[in-house]
Amino acid sequence: MQSTVTPTHCPYCALQCGMNLTPAPDGTVEVSERTDFPVNRGALCGKGRTAAAVLAPGVRLTSPLVRDEGGALVPASWDEALDRIAAGLGRTRAEHGPDAVGVFGGGGLTNEKAYTLGKFARVVLGTSQIDYNGRFCMSSAAAAGIKAFGLDRGLPFPLEDIPKSGCVILVGSNLAETMPPSLRFFTELKENGGTLIVIDPRRTKTAEQADLHLAPRPGTDLALALGLLHLVIAEGRVDEEYVRERTAGWEDARAAAMAHWPEYVERITGVSVPQLRETVRLFCEPESAMVLTARGPEQQSKGTDTVGAWINLCLATGRAGRPLSGYGCLTGQGNGQGGREHGQKADQLPGYRKLDDPAARAHVAGVWGVDPDSLPGPGRSAYELLDALGTDIRSLLLMASNPVVSAPRAAHIEERIRSLDFLAVCDVVLSETAVLADVVLPVTQWAEETGTTTNLEGRVLLRRRAISPPEGIRSDLEVLHELAARLGVEKGFPTDPEEVFEELRRASAGGAADYSGITYRRLAEENGVFWPCPAEAEVETPGEDAGARPGGEAPAVHPGTPRLFLDRFATPDGRARFVPVSHRATAEEPDEEYPVLLTTGRVVAQYQSGAQTRRVAELNSAAPGPFVELHPRLAARLGAAEGDPVAVVSRRGRAVAPARITNAIRPDTVFMPFHWPGEGRANTLTNPALDPTSRMPEFKACAVRLETVER
Ligand code: SF4
User: Which residues form the 4Fe-4S Mo/W bis-MGD-type domain (predicted)?
Assistant: First the structure.
């Protein structure tokens, strides 16, 4: 075991906080402050601080597992486990065709793994059926960003710009619990005289920090944004010159907004007209302002339009592509950003290229050494893929995801997974999904492997290996290498992450997410590089070949792009696009039978499906189980007291959890965190209604009824 301090990054959320790891003589690893990384400057939340606990042999998987004839998962050799997977996937492919084999990835995979998984699916398996759980995370913001700006990068500016802006509207983000170290940017914003406006149906810990908190009914923030734009127009606050010079499509968006009178918006959202007017004043008066969205507006069956409405507000007021102003999405998962750039998404090839673009196919096929015509086309989105398990899709290879807990309509998805002919799972722990597998492979974790991630700012980062994995553990790259060989592809699946990254650089060159100018060495020396970063900077003399300059002068190094769109947007004509959008109801409005709205989210001590964090004693004692948050008036109507078990029933199922009674939530809404399996699984209830563009399910609003439970 090495004994030095290794600077690296947290395995969990998209903030990707810097941390130092030091191996201790007893085999454990100490996590300590790393102050040189500007995003967190040494601060860590409890999840990051305790992340090393999951490295312990008693917590994690240490041997491959295969299902024996009696139906039990039992330890097996790597050769037996890999042979079984190759046979299982190969059999399905031979009997039912390549698209009967599915691949499901995760937003926690490094860029190298996400890239290799996408290549494995398309080159080795020949299947179009690959997607990943990042689809559940930010795909509506990605779709809206591409429509408006021609490019999707979570934040188009570094987090350090936030404190210098005049006003930030934070829509549907509880970052005080989801990424606590980021709260300081907003505290500094206020200390500098800026204003923080938080929009959330709950008075969250983040909302408590706000100068103004608006609590709309879940699923109505599209109407809210339209009402604000209506007032901007009515009060003469449109930046006409900016709209004329830097945008297109204003007239249609303007007409759509004018149909949303403030009083009408008040009736839909529950936010009063004076609050709407105050929001417009606070947003428009400073020289600069930002809108940041997270899962609240995005995880809706109209998420793309909802984010589009917030972008329209930014464009009409000249708050995009200007210093200290802009729209950004606070991506959630550790590599949610990079994971959607390099090919594990159903419709994408590396470099954020589109799978249905002939030029993109030719470029990537050239790098991969295959015929472009051999690459399959776009496949199903995450929920649609999971919903097809056991029917069109007979076998599944799943990496770093736990859909039994995290997918909407989870009982149905669990049933679909159980109906597969064959399931193989690569994970660090025996998750609720892994326990259903025919073969489970134990893989290395963040502290045991090198690789890159891309944080919510678009900053590509180097995670470094600090310790050796325990005996019997292999990396995901080694797994894919071995499986490719067993399925007849001997070359093209290296196990060295840097070798994979070098290929990823070539595959991404010229794409929207161009990493070709980024090297491991630069990442180590520069503490991260923002994409796009082409291999060479533009030279001053047009037409000059930067790679072959007179006198052997080295080509210019591109510095990376911390701030996007300052000169032009990434559309063909450089103008941002307004997208005309109108309010519409959620897919499932409350009615007599299901009169209450359910919204879901996270708590500070748990992460996503909880597969890792539920295994950490300190986190588990801080957040031991699910709960139903409800208003005292609703609790009184139900006859429930604090801690009483409450059943929440939707058209998809029933979940039971203790009541947590608080004035911090609207009386027409209940909230459940989604980190737990079993009786209190929130996703048993959620609605898989999909956004027509992003295919994002509607996690944030569905109709439920409450019942008391006798115990
Ligand atoms: Fe890790 Fe996110 Fe916590 Fe930072 S905020 S320590 S990245 S979980």
Answer: 3-59
